[in-house]
Amino acid sequence: MSGSDRKVIEAILLLADEPVPATLIGEVLETSTVTVETLLKELAAAFRAEDRGFVLRSAAGGWRLYTAPECGPWLERFVRNHSHARLSGAALEVLAIVAYRGPISRAQIADVRGVDSDGVVKTLAGRGLVTEAGYETGPGSPVLFTVSSEFLERMGLGSLADLPPLKDFMPDAEAVEAMESRLSPNA
Amino acid sequence: MSGSDRKVIEAILLLADEPVPATLIGEVLETSTVTVETLLKELAAAFRAEDRGFVLRSAAGGWRLYTAPECGPWLERFVRNHSHARLSGAALEVLAIVAYRGPISRAQIADVRGVDSDGVVKTLAGRGLVTEAGYETGPGSPVLFTVSSEFLERMGLGSLADLPPLKDFMPDAEAVEAMESRLSPNA
Amino acid sequence: MTYEVRLDVFEGPIDLLLHLITRQRVDIYEVSLATITEEYLAAVAALPQTDLESATGFLVVAATLLELKSARLLPARRAADDDGHLMEERDLLLARLVECATFREAGTWLSGRMAAGAGFHGRSAGLEPHFVDLAPDLLARTSLVRIASAAARALAPRPASLLDMSYVALAGPSVKDAILELAGRLDGGGPASFDELCGRGTSRVAIVVRFLALLELFKAGAVDITQTHSFGDIVAVWTGEIPAGEVVAGAEEYTIDLGATGT
Fold first, then answer.
1. Looking at beta carbons, which residues of chain B come within 8 Å of C261?
2. Is C135 in Cβ contact with B99 (below 8 Å)?
3. Against a cut of 0.95, is the pTM above it?
4. Can you tell me the distance from the alpha carbon of C222 to that of C241, in angstroms, rounded to the nearest whole number?
């Protein structure tokens, strides 16, 4: 019974080309999501224990089969056009702003950074990391951006709620004090 | 050694979307084809013995992972329910570009979109919406794509000439004008 | 203290300032704002090329730095509200620096996390052929309009981004106002030099506006202008022939207004 459920889950995962929500699998199996989640976790653990070439990961609200990172060097030639190009510092900064402040318009991003960032936003959109998410109500109704589910998947995050709190990245009191003293007229 | 080879083979099979010749795997692993064939047969037997949801079969001159036939009924349900029924934003864009600019090569599509679009083209081709239409004359003679007659039929178009003129959908001149007027001294 | 300007391409003024301010990890009492300002200006001068928008951004930050610097050099001038204003400017700048540093750090974290995720390649072989026919119709919710709009979006020539001037709130002084002001001073007040009419500490724009106002008055015949030699004092005297109101009515409006709407 549970063995057959496991088998169907494996088959579904093989067909899927994006993360599959446990609820969807539950519908197919006519089983509770909790049961499915348990089976998925067992399966992921089993693949790990068996040292398989594929791993089962949960990200972007679903489960999907991935190749084991250790196989990377051998897989290079099979992975066509996978953009491995590293993101620039500016791109990472904008990505962080969109992740934490999205939905956000180009102008608001530029406000935070103090510099026009349209080119960077376009690059990130082209890489599928940020995506348009409607329009702001207001003059000119500018486009709003959020991070994409592909971003969440690549980060291995279930949702934006899984991002660490922004305050973890704030410069510490000492650093802020140092900045302040350098800006003070009485320094 | 053989354990690690087995792992890489599994990873390769997970990535492949068509049968992979044993010789190709042999090149990657720097092993003889005979060794690879042996490993593949062992792996296929192991998957069967473990009653997996996927089976490894040799077909069309190579090896590929398929879903286990016994899972068919559940997979049909999964496919019917699956939300990837909707065209993703990227798929819609590629489809539109192929409709208006076809015959067009993958590289040209990527040029227009500023991002690699091979996966999307493959999906659209797999679903019968775009189709190969010869080869470009030129280096590498890349495949050219057009929308399929099924697409035309479904959209109620006699031919591509019946597509609505693109200029009707270009970003409105008004928005551009509004921006320009803000720059003029007597706004 | 030695400093070299690295030819980094800075992403805007805040980026540059953050770089300069965090780089100087020496005894903070030894570091003068002047040094930072000098480095800042040197770095700006070394920028390979900038567009007008980023150039103004750099200027704003540089101006703030210079103001802070001058306040430090001239302690006597530091009146209470000057100080308040300066502190406000500084706090604003500081807040932006902290915000920028925060997002930069967050970006670094994202980068590490993404690198860790890059080793995973998702299964994407898609549906096996015998399942394809079962899959729901991809075109079910697609209309020609959607296709055409998507094509237009993708194929539209990317316009060179236009300079957004919406934030430039440079509502200049009005020439008409200046005419009335000058008339008030000259009518019955005897001759006055242009310097006197402008007063001390008047901005360049205000001086230009007053000059235009004076010319309008002269053109209308309300004042006579004398200048004894080139670059000498311009002296204006009220003729009493034309009322100031008439001059105002006929004057061209030169108000310098760069389309500052809203802000």
1. 182, 187
2. no
3. no
4. 6
Name the CA dihedral angle for A67, A69, A73, A77, rounded to a multiple of 10 degrees: 30
Q: What is the mean pLDDT, run by run of 10 residues, along chain B of 187 residues?
A: 80 87 89 93 95 90 90 88 68 89 88 78 85 83 89 83 81 52 44
Residue C143, class by beta-carbon neighbours within 10 Å (0-12 exposed, 13-18 middle, 19+ buried)? Answer: exposed
Cα–Cα distance measured from residue C117 to residue C201, given in angstroms and rounded to the nearest whole number: 61
Prediction ipTM score: 0.64
CA-based angle A156:A159:A160, to the nearest 5? 105
Burial of C70 (0-12, 13-18, 19+ CB in 10 A): middle
The dihedrals phi and psi of C115, each to the nearest 5 degrees, come to -60, -40
Q: How many CB pairs below 8 A link B and C?
A: 128
CA distance C171 to C254: 11
If DSSP codes are grouped into helix, strand and coil, which group holds residue C3?
Answer: coil
C163 at B interface, C-beta within 8 A? yes
Residues of B in contact with C169 (CB under 8 A): none
Q: pLDDT tens-digit profile of C16-64?
A: 777 777 765 443 344 566 677 777 777 777 766 666 666 777 777 777 7
Q: Per CB distance under 8 Å, which residues of A are interface residues toward B? A: 3, 6-18, 24-25, 27-29, 51-54, 65-68, 70-71, 74-75, 77-81, 83, 122, 126-128, 131-132, 140
